[in-house]
Write a structure and sequence with these properties.
With 603 residues, the protein is α+β, with helices and mostly antiparallel strands. The chain contains 22 helices and 23 strands. Strands 12, 13, 14, 16, 17 and 19 form a six-stranded antiparallel beta sheet that branches. A five-stranded mixed beta sheet has the order 2-11-10-3-9, with helices on one face. A four-stranded antiparallel beta sheet has the order 5-4-7-8. The model has no long low-confidence stretch (mean pLDDT 89).
Length: 603
């Protein structure tokens, strides 16, 4: 909230990921299909594991720095960027003329030694240690005090250009060289190579070398060197075609599984978590890792006391890959699923026969209440700005809420609300105003907020098109729901949830608290998108996914959650992930939000 929004003159797009040598060859084949007969040279450079940032220089003077944000809009962090020691406040005049405008993109990052020193200082001061250099860099750039940012010893390295005027360079290699002449930090390992064979050689050589660098990396960025080809190669919905990021296989580490604890989610699902001897993995100290579920624990025969192999999924979430059974001593203990909730001691249960997940049924379970409250306040549900995890914790600890229904009665507890940490009159009134507005959110938003298993935005929207109230949905059997065109599993889940006595009580309490969901108009029987099925994924530049889905449904189209051969189009934004990969494998057309607007006739 303390930073102004900035619209990027040239969007900061993501990079297509490649994870195999064969994938690199396939990427070049794709380029050759667009520009047959062209011989490509490339520039390879380390993919620094930092935070994307844009620096704008006008007549050589730094006038604006911005975070990447969603690729279209970011935050103005100029004051903080000025404190990054190797960011020049003024470009150097010399062999390369200072451009009228030069917007340079790059990464802000910590060197390993600086990050470790920062943690040593925090430990000496009795403060919590930072676990991840990249996340700490991102958090540092969002500090409101530039003096604090200056103490963190962040660094910047440039990798590309946004808007430019009076800066004419014909190749990526020349861009790197020119930036260096202007005093901008560049990566000395940036190397021009001929053909994909040169890329493969660089990638193989760099795999071991990267472990000796002063900073963290997670791959190699490869760019077509000839910048005149970039426009001809164009972009996909999310990334330039002339650039790819080779990502190395996820790092693995061996650690000892000391004990198992249990987490309770918002739907009551109880999942096992491994507590490990601390181990360094992909730039972070890992102490906990996911065990997925108890069926997986039994299948892999993972035991307390085992030496285990730990991996990071997408280099983000650590999980236990397998146990190293050859290291067992005989003292290891089998991991049994608990019979009672670790948070509220309620008997655990499976919602239906054969279900893998065990759940806490209580709607007064502390972790379940807090998880539901946070989800309820999210943008995809009731959109209550200001009701975040810290405030939810306070509300629960101070007994202002016992179930999510109590959120809607906080107006009657305003005096107690004002007693909370950092809660002044203005903040309290703003929160209460948001809550009041949420009482009439559309029915599909309410369904998302309830935490019904497998009921996300798309399913909730489909249900809300067929029923006009929670009471009407509550009376429907699984057969009734299926007759309205909903799938068997979803129909069974919804009917089972609403038939539960505790859930009936929750709905009654929500209604008594003033919740009156609005009903969206029924989808038109015909329109510009009639007969077409869409899947929406990723972060879109202008609208939320929900708003895009509403546009599609409003024009007579159908929206589903998963890509299949029956999908007409995938609308893809940033970080599209597996759905984009599946669409490409099935030859499903992939379109951007802008292309969807053209189909709808939106100017």
């Amino acid at each position: 909230a303390g930073f102004a929004n900035v619209t990027h003159r040239v969007p900061m797009m993501s990079i297509e990921k490649v994870t195999t040598i064969e994938g690199l060859a396939d990427w070049e084949k794709g380029l050759a299909r667009i520009l047959p007969g062209t011989s490509f040279s490339y520039v390879c450079e380390p993919k620094v594991d930092g935070v994307a940032c844009s620096l704008r220089y006008e007549r050589g003077v730094l006038v604006l720095a911005a975070t990447r944000g969603d690729g279209v809009r970011g935050d103005d962090i100029t004051a903080n960027a000025r404190t990054v020691r190797n960011v020049p406040l003024k470009l150097r005049e010399g062999k390369v003329p200072v451009p009228e405008v030069l917007e340079v993109r790059g990464e802000v990052y910590f060197e390993r030694a600086d990050f470790e020193k920062l943690n040593q200082e925090r430990e000496a001061a009795g403060e919590d240690l930072f676990q991840n250099a990249r996340n700490t860099a991102a958090g540092t750039l969002k500090q409101l005090d530039p003096a604090l940012v200056a103490t963190r010893k962040l660094k910047f390295v440039s990798y590309g250009a946004g808007e430019t005027k009076g800066f004419l360079v014909e190749t990526v290699a020349a861009f790197v060289s020119s930036c260096r002449e202007l005093g901008l930090p560049t990566n000395p390992l940036s190397t021009r190579v001929a053909g994909i064979e040169g890329v493969v050689e660089y990638v193989k050589d760099f795999e071991e070398r990267r472990k000796t660098l002063a900073y963290e990396t997670d791959g190699v960025v490869v760019k077509v060197d000839d910048r005149s080809l970039h426009a001809e190669l164009g972009t996909t919905a999310k990334a330039p075609r002339w650039m790819a990021a080779f990502k190395y296989e996820a790092e693995k580490a061996v650690s000892r599984l000391l004990s198992v604890s249990y987490q309770v989610g918002r739907t009551g699902a109880v999942t096992p978590v491994a507590n490990l001897e601390p181990v360094r993995l992909a730039g972070t100290t890992v102490k906990r890792a996911s065990l997925h579920n108890f069926e997986e624990v039994a299948r892999k025969d993972i035991r307390e006391g085992d030496w285990v192999l730990v991996e990071k999924a997408g280099e983000i979430i650590p999980y236990v890959l397998e146990s190293l059974k050859e290291k067992r001593t005989g003292k290891e203990k089998k991991i049994a699923a608990p019979e009672r909730c670790p948070e509220c001691d309620s008997p655990l249960e499976r919602r239906k026969e054969g279900e893998v997940i065990i759940r806490c049924p209580s709607y007064e379970c502390p972790e379940k209440v807090k998880g539901l409250a946070i989800a309820l306040a999210s943008r995809r549900a009731m959109d209550i700005e200001g009701l975040g995890p810290k405030l939810v914790d306070q509300l629960y600890e101070e007994e202002l809420i016992e179930t999510i229904a109590d959120i809607f009665t906080l107006d009657k507890k305003r005096d107690r609300l004002l007693g909370l940490e950092r809660m002044g009159e203005k903040s309290a009134d703003s929160l209460l105003s948001q809550i009041e507005a949420a009482k009439t959110r559309p029915l599909d938003r309410v369904l998302v907020a309830l935490g019904i298993p497998h009921v996300g935005e798309t399913i909730a929207a489909a249900v809300a098109q067929r029923y006009s109230s929670l009471e009407e949905i509550g009376k429907a059997s699984a057969e009734d729901l299926q007759a309205k065109g909903l799938g068997q599993v979803v129909s069974e889940n919804i009917a089972l949830w609403f038939s539960d006595k505790r859930n009936k009580e929750l709905v009654a309490r929500l209604r008594a608290a003033g919740l009156k969901p609005s009903v969206k108009p029924a989808a038109p029987s015909s329109g510009k998108l009639t007969g077409k099925t869409f899947v929406v994924t990723g972060t879109l530049p202008k609208r939320s996914r929900e708003d895009v889905k509403d546009l599609i449904v409003g024009a007579g189209g159908k929206v589903t959650d998963s890509v299949s051969k029956n999908t007409s189009y995938l609308v893809a934004g940033e970080k599209a992930g597996s759905k984009l990969e599946r669409a490409q494998a099935l030859n499903v057309p992939v379109i951007s939000e802008g292309e969807l607007e053209k189909m709808l006739g939106i100017e």
